[in-house]
């Protein structure tokens, strides 16, 4: 008798679907992916409701691509690929072979921190290329024309939810997917196909009572277990956010200039995570830290050349310079004053305003003189407000 239950939780027999799944997984591993699993292409009703509630609460404000219609499509593979039968989900570790070692370099060069994932070449490009190779192999295995669609964190698909369904990992309370071998240090990609593949069972694991990630977030962005308010998240503020950083959040951002790893660094699952292999399709860029004063003097041409193949280019030059000002203000190092002085004359008001804030944080007679001169010369209303607040900070005990 055949199995009559739905595909979720079904134990696959050695059928054609199981044979094809084995071939697909073997090829995915040979292409350099560390993890691969298969999920049935069925709607994610529960995850859709959760995601739409977060949109309603404004947690994703500032990211207009997250709206109710997009969430509805992202939760239903049939709307993304009519006739879809399977979702192949892959994971690629981005944990560098060595960790730490930044402290001395940062102290010597006034450098800011970069999230681990951005210390590699752009994963979108590398993973899409490998997934297209996997798509070609699927055609070969099936012996027929197969419909496929590739996703790598830039299309309408709830990849983390499908990764959970495919057995790659489970949701952490910081909303990252936690895997047994590589922790949360993984990029995810997916391939939807109309080929019938035997699905994997979800893992029966959770975070249990652990909540270490929640107090580790300095801005309080993890507002509840499994719920992140992006408006307070350092990663969002340093990458996607285009305007002024809310004044009350700036002192909490420390010296992060692109992304943040704090909630992952305290996760016990990450304690013994396996680093990326030497066979990874990603390449190290050397952008482990960024010199803050050099960022403030960087030209658009220099930015484009230096970060051409890096995820860091997502922040845009003016965004990185804004972030550099915030980091310098939080470092309280008088060596930053000359660079911040020059930033007070920057063409972009966004940079001038944050440079003023940083000078107010560093304090001292030189900072006060520069701010008073800036107040006389400045014509932008928002920048004048920032300069005024910085001068108040100088006089606040």
Comma- or semicolon-separated keywords:
397 residues, alpha+beta, Leucine-rich Repeat Variant, 2 domains, four-stranded antiparallel beta sheet, three-stranded mixed beta sheet, 17 helices, disordered N terminus
What do you see in this structure?
This protein has 397 residues and is α+β, with helices and mostly antiparallel strands. The chain folds into two domains: 287 residues, no CATH class; 101 residues, Leucine-rich Repeat Variant (Alpha Horseshoe), CATH 1.25.10. 41% of the residues lie in helices and 11% in strands. It is built from 17 helices and eleven strands. The chain has a four-stranded antiparallel sheet with strand order 1-2-7-4, sandwiched between helices. A hairpin with a 2-residue loop joins strand 8 and strand 9. The radius of gyration is 24 Å and the shape is elongated. The N and C termini lie far apart (80 Å). The N terminus is likely disordered.
Summarize the structure.
The chain contains 17 helices and 11 strands. It has 397 residues and is α+β, with helices and mostly antiparallel strands. Strands 1-2-7-4 form a 4-stranded antiparallel sheet, sandwiched between helices. It has a 3-stranded mixed sheet with strand order 10-3-11.
């Amino acid at each position: 008798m055949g199995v009559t239950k739905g595909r979720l939780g079904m134990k696959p027999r050695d059928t054609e679907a199981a044979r094809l799944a084995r071939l697909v997984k073997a090829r995915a591993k040979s292409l350099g992916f560390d993890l691969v699993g298969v999920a049935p292409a069925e709607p994610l009703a529960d995850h859709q409701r959760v995601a739409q509630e977060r949109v309603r609460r404004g947690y994703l404000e500032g990211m207009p691509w997250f709206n109710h219609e997009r969430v509805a499509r992202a939760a239903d593979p049939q709307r993304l690929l009519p006739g879809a039968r399977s979702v192949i989900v892959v994971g690629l570790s981005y944990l560098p072979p060595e960790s730490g070692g930044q402290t001395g370099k940062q102290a010597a060069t006034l450098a800011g921190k970069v999230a681990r994932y951005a210390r590699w070449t752009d994963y979108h490009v590398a993973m899409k290329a490998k997934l297209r190779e996997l798509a070609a192999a699927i055609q070969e295995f099936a012996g027929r024309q197969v419909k496929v669609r590739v996703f790598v964190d830039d299309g309408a698909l709830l990849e983390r939810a499908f990764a959970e369904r495919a057995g790659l990992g489970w949701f952490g309370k910081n909303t990252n997917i936690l895997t047994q071998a590589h922790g949360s240090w993984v990029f995810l990609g997916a391939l939807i196909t109309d080929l019938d593949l035997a699905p994997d069972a979800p893992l029966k694991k959770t975070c249990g009572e652990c909540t270490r990630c929640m107090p580790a977030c300095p801005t309080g962005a993890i507002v509840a277990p499994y719920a992140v308010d992006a408006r307070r998240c350092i990663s969002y503020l340093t990458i996607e956010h285009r305007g002024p950083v809310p004044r009350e959040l700036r002192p909490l951002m420390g010296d992060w200039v692109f992304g943040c790893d704090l909630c992952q660094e305290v996760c016990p699952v990450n304690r013994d995570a396996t680093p990326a292999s030497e066979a990874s399709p990603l390449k190290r860029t050397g952008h482990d830290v960024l010199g803050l004063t050099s960022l403030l003097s960087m030209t658009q041409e220099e930015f484009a050349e230096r970060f051409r193949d890096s995820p860091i280019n997502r922040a845009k030059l003016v965004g990185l310079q804004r972030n550099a000002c915030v980091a310098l203000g939080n470092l309280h190092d008088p060596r930053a004053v000359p660079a911040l002085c020059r930033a007070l004359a920057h063409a972009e008001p966004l940079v001038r305003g944050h440079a003023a804030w940083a000078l107010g944080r560093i304090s001292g007679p030189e900072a006060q003189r520069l701010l008073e001169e800036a107040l006389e010369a400045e014509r932008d209303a928002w920048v004048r407000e920032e300069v005024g607040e910085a001068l108040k900070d100088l006089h606040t005990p």
